[in-house]
Design brief:
It contains ten helices and four strands, in the order ββββαααααααααα. The chain is mainly α and about 230 residues long. It has a two-stranded antiparallel sheet with strand order 1-2. Strands 3-4 form a two-stranded antiparallel sheet.
């Protein structure tokens, strides 16, 4: 089977990737295009066409959500969570704390995409959308770290969960005024470690930040009920 294999991507949020095709027995680990600013991920080249979706920002993510059939109310939800996320990230930038803002922004935008498949969970508690959302995004070639936010925004306590993933989870709580003490302590510890401080040195200032964002829930909740 000769010649390169071209993976053609349908929108401006995607690109054309050329990967040399090899027999199944000789598949090599190839470099997968990643979100700008994120390290590339490895994957095994399959014998079929594979579409890579490049999400550079939330606008790209919203376009993908619409392509996947997300209702307006779901997109409005992630926009409102994004407002809380923006407030979190703006404060961290002012403190000089380094983190991957693009991962947080895109993770927030797609974290509930699985509700396209489980629309009942737009109104009722449920977790089927979590793993389903991750699978859906991976099938569309979204960076695995972004896709995993579909799972980690609920399962945020593990040692392998990153600060960026926990910021997605925290924004998903604070936007509606919910204070999740254990999650907040995880975030404070992660930030303190990056800042070279103790948890208690960061606690008072960050606790005030979290309360300020949560206090704005009323102004965000009302627009979320319109759709």
């Amino acid at each position: 089977m000769g010649g390169p294999c071209y993976y053609t991507l349908p929108s401006r949020s995607t690109r054309i990737v050329e990967i040399a095709r090899r027999p199944t027995s000789e598949r090599a680990m190839s470099r997968r295009p990643a979100i700008h600013g994120l390290a590339e991920q490895s994957f095994i080249v399959p014998d079929f066409f594979w579409t890579v979706t490049m999400l550079d920002n939330r606008s790209d993510a919203y376009r993908l959500l619409r392509t996947l059939g997300a209702p307006a109310r779901l997109i409005r939800h992630v926009e409102l969570v994004g407002e809380a996320g923006d407030a979190l990230m703006a404060d961290l930038r002012l403190r000089g704390i380094r983190f991957d803002a693009q991962l947080v922004e895109c993770g927030i935008a797609v974290h509930d995409v699985g509700k396209v498949l489980f629309p009942a969970e737009l109104d009722e508690p449920g977790n089927q959308h979590e793993a389903a959302g991750e699978r859906m995004l991976l099938e569309h070639g979204v960076d695995p770290r972004v896709a995993h936010c579909c799972v980690s925004h609920a399962a945020w306590a593990g040692d392998e969960v990153t600060l960026e993933e926990r910021l997605v989870a925290l924004a998903d709580k604070l936007w509606k005024g919910k204070r999740e003490e254990t999650l907040e302590l995880f975030v404070i510890e992660d930030i303190a470690a990056r800042f070279g401080a103790t948890r208690w040195e960061m606690f008072v200032e960050l606790d005030t930040l979290f309360e300020d964002i949560a206090r704005g829930a009323a102004s965000r909740l009302e627009p979320s009920r319109i759709l």
